[in-house]
Amino acid sequence: MNYQEVLDYLYQQLPMFQRIGNAAFKKSLDNIIALCDAMGNPQQNYKTIHVAGTNGKGSSSHMLAAVLQEAGYKTGLYTSPHLKSFTERVRINGTELPQQYLIDFVENYKPLFEKVQPSFFEMTVALAFKYFADEQVDVAVIEVGLGGRLDSTNIITPEASLITNIGFDHQALLGNTLEEIAAEKAGIIKPGIPATISLKQPETTAVFTAKAEEVNAPLFFASDTYSVELKSYSLEQQVVDVYRNGELYLHGLKLDLTGIYQRYNLPGVLQTIDVLLNREFKITEQAIRNGLENTKVLTGLKGRWQVLNYSPLTICDTGHNVDGINQILAQLHSLQPKQVHFVFGAVNDKDVTTILELLPKNYSYYFCQADIPRALPVAELSQKAEKVGLRGTSYSSVADAVKAAKENAAPDEIIFIGGSTFVVAEIEEL
Question: What local confidence, expressed as pLDDT, does residue 171 receive?
Answer without folding.
Answer: 54
